[in-house]
Amino acid sequence: xxxxxxxxxAARQWMRRLYEARLLANRGSADSVRRASLGLLRASRAQHLxxxxxxxxxxxxxxxxxxxxxxxxxxxxxxxxxxGASVGVDEAGGVHVAYRATVGDANGHFPAFYAYCAxxxxxxxxxxxxxxxxxxWHVNLALDAGGRPHxxxxxxxxxxxxxxxxxxxxSDCTNRGNWTLGVRRQxxxxxxx
Length: 193
What we know:
The protein is α+β, with helices and mostly antiparallel strands and about 190 residues long. The protein is built from three helices and twelve strands. The chain has helices at about 10-25, 30-45, 55; strands spanning about 60, 70, 80, 80-90, 95-100, 110-115, 125-135, 140, 140-145, 150-155, 160-170, 180-190. It has a five-stranded antiparallel beta sheet with strand order 1-4-5-6-7, with helices on one face. Strand 10 (about 150-155) and strand 11 (about 160-170) form a beta hairpin. The N and C termini lie far apart (about 35 Å).
């Protein structure tokens, strides 16, 4: 998926690289996205074309059920799968992911997470994780031109409402103190019963 309209040739090259890594080399989704994005960036450099992230940074993988990151419930230490992974790759090849838990914690909250890996993302020890929200139904991720993550979150508000939040980080994004989380909108949903 692309976050903005992209040139047909850039999209064709990125998709070819993605599927070569994913299907022919049997690599995971995050590694395939990373390789496709870096391959497009390197090809642009070799041809002396623009390397602005507009041309290669708009591609993300979203909702890949095989891209599962951990959620361990603190109350009993049990690990559960997650869903809705949204992946982006920055210019340095770092992989950014936003996702949410499929099982609630001890308080019935469904937390959302941000994860980052700078390199060798096949090993779990290279990933850093951070909880961003406690009551989340939907999470997505986009990287701006500087490779900084922007994450919209949606979750329950009061009994029948929805709260829309927006999380932004400027640097060292595995440090919770570097994130700004604001409420964009909260409203009551009115449904006929």
